[in-house]
Design brief:
Length: 619
């Protein structure tokens, strides 16, 4: 006998297939996962019992979960978009499991219970970042000390094997931990010792010999601290591998998120591969008249590839990074700010990211005195009537130029995916906003799947790329991401406004094209927040896009924004899904699917009449 849940899953799956949808993905960063009763330490994790319980829940509806960046974050900054590129975040370790016989109870139950009891945000759907950062470190120190005492040769052998397999990045990351203790802080630009700042950036053979001795000295002095760092990464790797296996059994995959940034730890370890004196950012635009000064390092183009076209040191680093991500996340990788890999905007350190202060496109500035040496195009390839920060400044490109712009994508990202058994469809490209001609050309040439965010629709533009009727099949569509207001808040801001009327008119034209009472629908939607929100969600399923993503605040009808760009408050990155999520009112997926089918026209609806009836039954 088929259960109610299984039948509902079956009907929803068939409806998605009828609408041409290949993927329905749930977006929630790791920290936002709910905890079981009595296990809320102040931070979420997909590796916890609460995380696995949610995976079971999600697998009945979604085929993948997209997480946020998984890197180790700074104690002073919870943003996952500035985390490490190789080391993963120790906050994602499930402490509860370390109290069990499986791990020889290397963490005491009393320590775990104390952390839960003193969580300042217990009973709320918020993380306690400062609190758990300190408490997690203390707990993992205790776990490591007890691990040294246990008699489990297999587990210890597994740890040794892990260290050897990952020494290319683990040795550097753990050495940074030791130097942070030595120097009293984990921000290397503030270290007073120039030698320690440049251990992996020697300028001569003399320095190379000198720095090698210093590395050996620190490694011996802090051998235990270094080993503890590696142990913590080992525990996290082991738990994450088991979670992946659990997810595979449920038939749900995980999609990773690769930020464009490098952490302080990475910048220190690989600074010889970065372009000295330059930072990555965004040019001036409608939202920021001075541009966005991110302060992230820029990979040196001369270190990406050798003269024969093979990968240089920086290229090998980037490929190893993506190979690790694809291997650990068979659902794929979302690449944040794909522009940064193809046509990055760079500015001089200490200056604003403005053209008049020397900023420009790294590969598209043949007229720039400093950047012209890296330019793929010639001055003759520029439009004469546009400025250096304009997206349309580059004219039509040759196939050879497009291939040069796309070298990193082809030789590193796509190659890494294929070597891990995936296709380029496993690459989700965050390409929101207006794209430069080189980026758009590379996306087209390599058939990369970009994003369409419907909340960004400009209702005054008939051919706006985010409007339902203009969204292509080969892309990922969503109503909002971690930086957007939830759709319920968006809808509330639109009712009874002129801008809202423009959005509503477009929605009615696109989704109610055969209706004879369009004016009545417009009037109703202009005054009914729920109807507008519902229709905005129908748009996702009605458009041609084969892949849909839904952020957790939208799916669970939450009203708080996860992160507000341009602000730095404790509320950013701290929102969690409450533990009682199963009792929360979610979007009515069967209703949305039914309306999406009906929006395709009377003939399409008639051909799927039986399915529409089933969707009615399971609402």
């Amino acid at each position: 006998m088929v259960s109610t849940i299984d039948r509902k899953t079956d009907v929803i799956t068939r409806a998605l297939n009828v609408l041409g949808k290949k993927n329905l993905v749930f977006i929630m960063h790791n920290a936002s996962f709910p905890a079981l009763e009595g296990e809320n330490t102040g931070f979420g994790s997909i590796n916890s019992s609460g995380g696995r319980k949610f995976l079971k829940y999600a697998s009945k509806i979604f085929d993948a979960v997209q997480l946020g960046p998984a890197g180790k974050t700074k104690s002073s900054d919870p943003s996952p978009y500035t985390g490490t590129i190789f080391s993963n975040n120790p906050l994602f370790i499930d402490l509860k499991e370390l109290t069990t016989a499986k791990w020889h109870s290397i963490l005491s139950q009393s320590t775990f219970d104390e952390i839960v009891a003193n969580n300042p945000n217990k009973g709320t759907n918020r993380t306690s970042y400062s609190y758990i950062t300190k408490k997690q470190e203390e707990a993992l120190n205790e776990a490591y000390e007890n691990f040294l005492e246990i008699d489990d040769k297999n587990l210890k052998s597994e740890f040794e094997t892990y260290k050897l397999k990952n020494d290319s990045w683990l040795d550097k990351d753990s050495l940074y931990e030791a130097l942070s203790i030595e120097r009293g802080n984990d921000y290397w630009p503030q270290w007073k010792n120039e030698e320690d700042k440049n251990l992996f950036n020697p300028k001569s053979n003399e320095e190379k010999i000198l720095y090698a001795k210093r590395i050996e000295e620190i490694s011996k002095k802090y051998s235990k601290e270094i080993d503890r760092y590696k142990f913590i990464q080992f525990v996290l790797h082991k738990q994450s591998s088991e979670t992946k296996k659990f997810a595979d059994e449920l038939g749900i995959k995980m999609i990773a998120d690769r930020q464009v940034a490098f952490s302080d730890r990475d910048t220190w370890a690989y600074q010889s591969l970065f372009l000295e004196g330059w930072c990555l950012g965004c040019p001036p635009d409608y939202f920021s008249k001075d541009g966005q000064a991110w302060g992230f390092p820029v990979i040196n183009p001369e270190r990406l590839y050798n003269k024969d076209g093979s990968l240089g040191d920086a290229g090998i680093l980037m490929k190893n990074l993506f190979k690790k991500m694809f291997k650990e996340n068979p659902g794929g990788v979302r690449i944040d700010h794909i522009v940064g890999l193809i046509d990055p905007w760079v500015y001089k350190k200490g200056k604003k990211p403005m053209p008049e202060q020397g900023a420009g496109r790294l590969y598209s500035s043949p007229e720039h005195p400093d950047l012209k040496q890296y330019s793929i195009i010639e001055v003759s390839d520029l439009n004469e009537d546009v400025t250096s920060d304009n997206e349309k400044r580059v004219k039509n490109l040759t196939d050879e130029q497009i291939k040069l712009y796309g070298r990193l994508i082809e030789k590193i990202v796509i190659a890494a995916a294929e070597e891990e058994g995936l296709t380029k469809d496993a690459i989700v490209c965050e390409d929101l906003g207006t794209l430069t001609n080189p980026v758009a050309s590379v996306m087209k040439k390599y058939e990369l799947l970009g994003m369409k965010l419907t909340q960004f629709t400009d209702p005054k533009e008939e051919d706006d790329p985010y409007r339902c009727k203009n969204i292509p099949a080969k892309c990922w569509v969503m109503v909002g991401t971690h930086d957007n207001r939830p759709v319920s808040v968006w809808a509330k801001s639109m009712v009874n406004t002129h801008e809202g009327y423009l959005h509503i008119k477009n929605l009615v034209d696109d989704l109610f094209c055969e209706s004879e009472n369009k004016d009545e629908i417009i009037v109703k939607m202009s005054n009914d927040v729920e109807f507008l929100k519902e229709t905005k969600l129908v748009e996702l399923f009605a458009c041609k896009a084969e892949n849909i993503q839904i952020f957790f605040t939208d799916y669970f009808n939450m009203t708080e924004t996860y992160n507000v760009p341009g602000t730095s408050t404790e509320r950013n990155w701290s929102l969690r899904l409450p533990g009682n999520y199963e009792a929360m009112q979610t979007i009515n997926l069967p209703l949305l699917l039914k309306k999406a089918i009906m929006s395709r026209g009377r003939e399409f609806a008639k051909a799927n009449e039986e399915l529409i009836g089933e969707l009615d039954e399971i609402q």
